[in-house]
Amino acid sequence: MFSPEGPGLRELAVQALSSVEHGYDLLAPKFDHTPFRTSGAVLDATTRALTGLGPFARGLDLCCGTGAGMDVLRAVCARSVTGVDLSAGMLAEGRRREAAREAGAPGPRADWVRADARALPFGPVFDLAVSFGAFGHFLPRELPALFAQVHSVLRPGGRFAFPLGAPPPFSSPWYWALLGFDMAMRVRNALWRPPFVMYYRTFRLGDVLRALHGAGFATELRALPEFGRRPDGSPRGRLVLATRAAL
Prior knowledge:
Elements: H1 9-16, H2 20-27, H3 40-50, E1 56-62, H4 68-76, E2 77-85, H5 88-100, E3 109-114, E4 126-130, H6 143-153, E5 154-165, H7 173-191, H8 205-214, E6 217-223, E7 237-244
Parallel strand pairs: 1-2, 1-4, 2-3, 4-5
Antiparallel strand pairs: 5-7, 6-7
Helix pairs in contact: 1-2, 3-4, 6-8
């Protein structure tokens, strides 16, 4: 699962026994060499789905990590892109990646801001917000307040978009792997402090849509055709597209 440049077992164990913030500070230099980084296939599919929905001037990557989603924003936003994350280490790695980009390369200005996604330090200035792979760090009861924060930083008519994969079927090894991970995390958090909140099976589509509606969003689902369909015909991957009402 990990490349030779990725973290070792001891490093992962230290991270797992840390807080979410400190754990990601420790993991940041090697994060892009782990399977936890959002895959290029997901990023590319999201970019294609968002292309043509704009124009977008300013974009926000919520819980940006080292900045994989910032590349999606650069492709569809004309003026500026902003990444926000709680981990100073992940932001530092994102800035390092930004500096390594070719000098003078075209694209919008990029900003990196350390903040809690549950208390965003912005007014309603963004046309588009995205997020990739971060929602497992929030308990289901936190979603209404989290989505309300996103709603508050979007301009009227602004969009909040994120990919969401279909849950694996009961017969799939992935079902049992994710179930086992979540159970292990619950045991860890019952026995050890500080907690490390990361669950793969708590971000369910029905709950997500209800929380988005409660925050004031209108929602639609768009299939991501790159990932095909399940035997029942439903898409294996969707883009959740939530829109703040225009004035």
